[in-house]
Structures are given as C-alpha cells and as structure tokens.
Specification:
Elements: H1 3-19, H2 24-34, E1 40-46, E2 51-58, H3 62-70, H4 77-80, E3 89-90, H5 92-95, H6 98-103, H7 105-111, E4 116-126, E5 131-139, H8 147-185, E6 190-194, E7 200-203, H9 205-213, E8 217-220, E9 223-226, H10 229-244, E10 254-259, E11 265-272, H11 278-282, E12 289-295, H12 305-311, H13 315-326, H14 330-337, H15 341-355, H16 360-369
Antiparallel strand pairs: 1-2, 1-5, 3-4, 4-5, 6-7, 6-12, 8-9, 10-11, 11-12
Helix pairs in contact: 1-2, 1-8, 13-15, 13-16, 14-15
C-alpha cells in the first residue's frame, strides 16, 4: 500500500479512537511507524504542578514508563518549557539548548538508557487547567527530527487533535449523563421519561421498584401501563398531547391520581418536555414527557433538627410542631403527651411567634417545605 493509502487508513483509525479510546495504543504505534519514530504517547500537562502524565503510549518499556510517572515526568522538556502554538511541531533543540538537554537528568538517567536522541512534540490542546501533547521519540538509528518527519507529522497532527477534542467532549457528556442518572436514582419519587406512545425511555431506581411490584404501575412490552384503565387512558392521552405540544397541558403539566391495592394513594405529575429549554433535554432521545410518581403523603424532613435550628425552637417546641403534623390538633396532642391542653397551647403560641405563622395549617406547610425528595 502506498503512502496515500496508509495515510487514509491511519486517519480513519485516528477518528475511531474518539469513540473508543482503548484503541489509542495501537493507533499511536501506527503513527510512530508512519513518521519513522519510536516510542510515542498522548501526554497531559498540569501547569500548576508542572507534571506530565502519559495517558496513552506505545513502544515504551513498562519499566521506564513507571520511572517516568514516578520521577522523570517533572524533568522532561514538556514539563519544563512553555507550550508552543497548537499543532506546531517542535524538537528538543527548539525547546532548549541541546547540550543542556544532553547534560540533564532526564536524558542521562531516562532517555539515554532507552537510546533516545530527540523528540518531536506537538501541542494538541491548551487551557488554563491542562495542555495535551503528542510526543514521538527518535533513537540513534532514525536520527534527529528532520523535515521528512515534520511533514509526515503535519499530516496527522490535526486529525489527532480533532479526535482528542471529540473524545474529550464525549467523555464530558458521558460524565454529565452519569451524574444526572446518579441524582435521579437518589430521589424517593419514581421518575419515568416516556415517548409519545407512553413507552419507557428511562426509569430511575424508585420507578423501577414501582414497576417490579406490579401494583398500580406496570411495564408491558416496554410501555408504562397503569392498572386502572381510566388512569392508563389518561396517561396515554397526556403523553400523546405532550408530543404534539397541546397547549391545554401547559408548561406546568398535569397531575394524575393513582391508587395501590392496599388503598395507599399516589400522584403522578406529568411534565411535557416539548417546550422551551426542556426540549433540549429530550432532543437526544424520543422522550416527550417526564412522570414524577410519589406517595400522596407528607414526607418528614431527613433532619427535623434543621427546622429547630432555623427557627430557634426548643426541643419541646419542635416535638409539638412535629406532633401537629403527625397527630393533629391540641386535644389529640395533649392526650398523646399526657399534659394539659393549656400547656400545648402555650407551646403552640410560641411556635406561631417564632415561625411568623398564625394557623396550624401554616405550620404543616412549613414542615412540608423542609421535606426532602431524596431516598433514605
């Protein structure tokens, strides 16, 4: 195969690495062969610590790679000299006096034992946080970096740079998706993303548990199905309306009641993903609506002490506040605590004063405001 065919195949392989970074060692070896180099690597420099890390490499002895990571990454020309322009190809004599290089520890203790005489370096990316480099060494057989090597590197460096940047973008998006999934899995509410046919595009852990129980929600052929026929019809209609941008749904969505076999009530809040910025969240999939399903009950805060600290409540006042939510009115609380109703009323008056409320219903709303959507 001629040089043109080798270059074409090499460029195609370089872009394959953007999707599968495990291919970089094989591709780096092919790049070294193409430019008549020896060991090669994709390096990342941390400017704050002046330390260089070889993310991917080919043609290097594992023993020397370990020494590089432990000691010599801080002593090499990439670490000790400023980054040049992106895609500019430079050799050791352009970075520092060659005699200084030969007399330094990096060469004497690390490069020389491997037979290296020169290194071609190209900056692939520069930012305040890090810089990425392509590095290709040469030994005594291949000689110093010459114009032929520069020309050949110039043919591949732009493609390596684009591939690295594409892979970096994909990595960020994957990390964002993983973080997003982790957050949703931490919610106590079931979260379902559905398409126009109410087929499940995504479900979090709480939602998956609801489906597995087979009670008021099930998955049939991948479609979210409510056990109650009327509710199921409403869910399907709402999903279809979300896909068509039905204005009657509105940006706030709708609430659909659900009932479990044991009588426990749940509510599904259906939010369309077809308006404004929400559409961007659904663009990468077929999801048109998000369902948030949770038990229709007041959830206590994970740390009631937070309420006490916020309003400077005494332990007894906090106990009365929570009893208003759990037990009910003054007579019921007095009976449960074994105290006079007047005592409860005294504490209730202090609660009104400290929280700026005037009704027991307002106190219930206050506690509800501190409830957490996170799973225990």
């Amino acid at each position: 195969m001629g040089d043109d065919g080798l270059l074409t195949n090499l460029i195609a392989a370089i872009y394959d690495a953007a999707l599968d970074d495990a291919r970089w060692p094989e591709i780096l070896a092919r790049i070294a062969d193409f430019v008549d180099g020896r060991a090669t690597g994709l390096l990342a420099k941390d400017p704050t610590r002046q330390q260089v890390e070889a993310h991917w490499h080919a043609g290097s002895d594992p023993y020397y790679l370990r020494l590089y990571a432990e000691t010599y990454s801080k002593l090499g020309p990439v670490a000790t000299t400023p980054a040049r322009d992106v895609e500019q190809i430079v050799s050791i004599p352009e970075l520092m006096p060659y005699d200084d290089f030969l007399g330094g520890r990096f060469y004497q203790e690390w490069a020389r034992p491997q037979g290296w005489v020169d290194v071609a370096i190209a900056v692939l990316d520069k930012s305040g946080c890090s810089s990425a480099y392509l590095s290709i060494s040469r030994d005594q057989t291949s000689g110093m970096v010459d114009e032929i090597m520069r020309r050949r590197m110039g043919l591949v460096v732009p493609h390596v740079r684009r591939s690295v940047l594409i892979g970096k973008t994909i990595g960020f998006k994957q990390a964002d998706a993983a973080t997003f999934t982790e957050v949703l899995d931490g919610l106590s509410a079931g979260v379902f993303l559905v398409d126009a046919g109410c087929r499940i595009v995504y479900v979090n852990l709480a939602g998956d548990e609801m489906i597995r129980s087979g009670d008021f929600l099930r998955s049939i052929g991948g479609r979210l199905v409510a056990s109650d026929a009327q509710v199921d019809q409403r869910l399907r209609a709402t999903a279809a309306a979300s896909a068509s941008g039905d204005v009657e749904i509105g940006s706030k969505g709708v609430a659909v009641p659900l009932s479990a076999h044991d009588g426990q009530r749940y509510v599904a809040h259906v939010l369309p993903l077809s308006c404004g910025e929400r559409q961007q969240a659904a663009a990468a999939s077929s999801a048109v609506a998000a369902l948030f399903v949770r038990r229709a009950a007041l959830e206590f805060p994970s740390a009631p002490d937070v309420i006490g600290e916020t309003y400077d409540l005494t332990p007894t006042e906090l106990r009365v506040l929570l009893a208003i939510v759990e037990i009910g009115g003054v007579p019921e609380i007095a009976a449960a605590f074994g105290v006079a109703e007047s005592t409860v009323k005294t504490h209730l008056g202090r609660l009104f004063e400290k929280t700026g409320t005037s009704r027991q219903a307002d106190l219930v709303k206050l506690v509800a405001g501190f409830s957490t959507p996170l799973a225990d």
